[in-house]
Amino acid sequence: MAEVELPDPEELEERRDTSFSRRVALTTAVYAVILAIASLGASNAMKHMLLAQQQSSDQWAFYQAKVIREHLYRAQALVMQAELADTAAGRGPRQEKQQALATRFAEEEKRYNAEKKDIEKDAKKLEAARDHRRERHPYFEFGEVLLQIAIVSASVAILSTSRQMFWFSLVLAVLGAGLTVNGFVPIFSLSFLHHH
Prior knowledge:
By secondary structure, this protein is an all-alpha fold. The chain has helices at about 10-85, 95-160, 165-185.
């Protein structure tokens, strides 16, 4: 009868620990990739939010310039109308010039009034884009934090060969990945992430 050699229990334990460490290390690499994506999403959301804020501010400044010009032409038209009323008795070339100027000022006032409405619409669209990015940004931030903690927990799991710590890191990574995905594509809303 042939002898059967049984494996050494310590050697089996060592191989199991090595296999576990490799799996956790590979999983940690996946966490790091997801973290990089979350970080990119967060910086992109912030960049677009700041750009939309700047463009919105520019539009509102342009709007204010139009309002000032509109009021300037309104004031000029009123002055011309007052002068026309004073010279109404004496028809002549001066009155015709004043009437033409008053008409032109009134037309300019109307033009600036119409232009500022378009500018206001553009400014409000840019504010909406800014607000949308502001709403999405916290999901990336919290996703990043959970993924960073997951990476640390996975490292601890490797060092301590703790399966519980690995599962904890996996749960954190899944939550972090979920928040990151939600930052890109709004699926759910967590009220505590919105600062209104």
